[in-house]
Amino acid sequence: MTENRLDPRFVRTRRLIMDAFLLLSTKKDFKNISIKDITSEATINRATFYYHFMDKYDLLEKTLEEHLMTNVMREISIHDQLNETTLASVFMSVTQFQSSLASQCRKSFESFTSVIEAIIKKELEQVFFEMMVNQNAGVREESVRIASVMLSWSIYGAAVNWQYNDTRPAEEYIQLVIPYLSQGLKFFIEEGVR
Questions:
Q1: Is 98 exposed, middle or buried (0-12, 13-18, 19+ CB in 10 A)?
Q2: Which structural domain range is residue 25 located in?
Q3: What is the reported pTM?
Q4: Same domain for 93 and 2?
Q5: Any idea what the CATH number is for the domain that residue 2 is in?
Q6: Residues contacting 34, CB < 8 A, separation 6+
Q7: Which residues belong to any copy of the HTH tetR-type domain (predicted)?
Q8: Following DSSP, what letter does each residue of 116-182 receive, concatenated?
C-alpha cells in the first residue's frame, strides 16, 4: 500500500472517501454513520474502503489529521521562530480549525472532540519541539520535550476555554493568554540549560 500512496487513483479514491465521510458528518451523528453509508456516498465497495482505512475510527482520525495538517500547520510553517507572534498565530489557527469543523459537522462535532484534542496536541508538540531545538542550542532535549508538551497542551486548553467560556474575539483573548505562555516557555528554556 505504501507504494501506491503517490498514485493519483489512490489519492483520488482516498479523497473521495474522506469527502463522503465529511458530508455524512453534516447529516448524521458519528455513531450513526456506518461503513455502508460511507461506501454508498463515495460510490465505492467495502473492499476499497478497507484498503484505505481500517475502520470508521481510522477514517475519522486520518481525515481530521489531514484537515489539521493543511489548515493549522500551514499557518505555523510560515514562522521560523517561536515567539509571541507565532503563539498567537497558532492559537488563531486552532480556534479557526475547531470553529470550521464545528460548523461543518454540527451533528458529529462532540464525537470528534477527543480525537481532535489528541491530534492537535501531538502535531503542535512536534512542531514546537522542532522550533525550540533549532532556536535553543545547548538546552537539554528532555527540557525541550517537556516545554513542547506543556505549550501544545496550553494552546489547546486556551482554545477550548475560549470556545466554550469566553465571548471576546479570539484575537483579544489570546493577548490575555500570551504572557502566561511566554513565561512558561522562558522558565522551561532557562531550566533546561542548567
A1: buried
A2: 1-53
A3: 0.77
A4: no
A5: 1.10.10
A6: 56
A7: 11-71
A8: HHHHHHHHHHHHHHHHHHHH-TTS-HHHHHHHHHHHHHHHHHHHHHHHHH--S-HHHHHHHHHHHHH
